[in-house]
Amino acid sequence: MDLFLVPDNPVNTVFVSTNGVAHYQTETPRCGINRTTVLTRPTDTDDGLVAEIAWRRYHWQHPTLVRTKLLANCRNSITGWRPLAEFLFKRSPRKTYKSRYFVADDGQEYRWKFEKNEQAVVLTRTSDNEEFARYERGLNKEGLYAGERKTRLHIRAECTIDYDLLLITFIATEQKRRDRAEFVLYQKGDQDPFGDGAGDS
């Protein structure tokens, strides 16, 4: 399955398939530092909420939090919020170590890692490095965006991970990468470091 990000902003976008069907949507306030992203599936019922991610951008002493039914047995049973790093974690505390790991619903450990100078994000199984999903920009040969260069999340048919969990971990990993890049610009003297978080190309 191919899911195109329209626009290319993981926290404010619609994930659209090749035939133009919207499968997921993220919405986030476009101002403020500490914002909450809401991930939903289009539905006629009230069951469309997939997850909420409360970002703590530029405040490293406060962890990013996530709330989702997929983590119903979390430690904080009162609010349902759980530190993102408890289930989407790094293997090393070094700032240069960017891969993030999680255990999926099949009991296997997976990781999101970066390739092509961080222009591609790839999901692999840790045990054998088999690839199951990839996010990158490329020329599309068919469907609604044929002939256009768009960013897309390609999920292989062999992938058995719950799609909700895959989307949550992808959004968190990619947005953390963008925040990190934005913070570097801020340190270099960018006059608008807290913009809307990512380009809408």
TrEMBL record:
Q: What name appears for this protein in its UniProt entry? A: DUF6593 domain-containing protein
Q: Which InterPro entries does the record associate with it?
A: DUF6593
- What is the species of this protein? Cylindrobasidium torrendii FP15055 ss-10
Which ranges carry the DUF6593 domain? 8-179
Which one Pfam family would you cite for this protein? DUF6593
